Amino acid sequence: MITSIALINGHSITKSAALKLIAVFVAGKVGRGISQVLIGWMPIAGNIVNASTAVTITASMSWYDHYAFSKQR
């Protein structure tokens, strides 16, 4: 996803640079893990919270990357 966003904005990115960008969002994965432990055991609410947390992390990562690459034009 990160390399595709870079290409759309006219940039080339190495695998190591993409991994550095992903490292920024590792904290989000930790937060998702915490939400799964706290609320994941609840049948309906747990599924809703887990899905919305995953969507939020993925969307925020892609929007951040798009913003970062578009500022470099």
Task: Describe the protein's topology.
Elements: H1 2-8, H2 15-24, H3 26-39, H4 43-71
Helix pairs in contact: 3-4
Tally the helices: what do you get? 4
From the alpha-carbon coordinates, what is the Rg to the nearest angstrom? 15 Å
What is the residue-averaged pLDDT?
78
Number of discrete domains: 1
Main sheet summary: none
**H/E element sequence:** HHHH
Distance between the termini: 19 Å
Structural class: mainly alpha
Helix content: over 70%
Approximate shape: elongated
Strand content: under 5%
Uncertain residue segments: none
Task: Let me know the number of strands.
Answer: 0
Walkthrough of the structure:
The protein has 73 residues and is mainly α. It has one domain. It is built from 4 helices and no strands. It has helices spanning 2-8, 15-24, 26-39, 43-71. Helix 3 (26-39) packs antiparallel against helix 4 (43-71). The chain is elongated. The mean pLDDT is 78.
